[in-house]
């Protein structure tokens, strides 16, 4: 009878171990899925940050044009600023393509 009890205990331990292994595998799958989602969301945040930068650059260009458009003496300065912004945008585009 003692052997029967030991056998039952061993069977109970094996069952618990199988359940624990299954739970561990499930947790590993959920972790991998969560890590993928984090990577996706980080990429999305980076993309949105870049869009915000682009909008800010566009807003700055509009402000410069509005400020300097009325004054023809500043036309050269306006062209230089616009060229500077264009070069900055080109750098951003080149960086994103790499």
Write a short abstract of this structure:
By secondary structure, the chain is an all-alpha fold.
Can you give a write-up of this model?
With 98 residues, the chain is mainly alpha-helical. Helices cover 93% and strands 0% of the residues. The longest helix is centred in the middle third of the chain and has 68 residues, at 2-69. The model has no long low-confidence stretch (mean pLDDT 85).
Explain the layout of strands and helices.
Blueprint: H1 2-69, H2 75-97
Keyword list:
98 residues, mainly alpha, 2 helices, 93% helix
**What is the molecular shape?**
rod-shaped
Biggest beta sheet attributes: none
Radius of gyration over C-alpha positions, nearest whole angstrom: 31 Å
Query: What percentage of amino acids are in beta strands?
Result: under 5%
Q: State the helix count.
A: 2
Number of strands: 0
State mean pLDDT (0 to 100 scale). 85
In whole angstroms, the N-to-C terminal distance is 73 Å
Which class best fits the helix and strand makeup? mainly alpha
Could you estimate the helical fraction of the residues in percent?
over 70%
């Amino acid at each position: 009878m003692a052997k029967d009890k030991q056998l039952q205990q061993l069977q109970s331990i094996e069952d618990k171990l199988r359940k624990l292994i299954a739970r561990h595998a499930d947790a590993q799958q959920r972790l991998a899925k969560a890590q993928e989602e984090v990577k996706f969301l980080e990429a999305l945040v980076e993309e949105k940050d870049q869009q915000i930068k682009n909008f800010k650059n566009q807003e700055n260009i509009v402000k410069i044009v509005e400020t300097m458009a009325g004054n023809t003496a500043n036309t050269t300065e306006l062209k230089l600023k616009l060229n500077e912004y264009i070069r900055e945008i080109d750098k951003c585009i080149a960086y994103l393509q790499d």
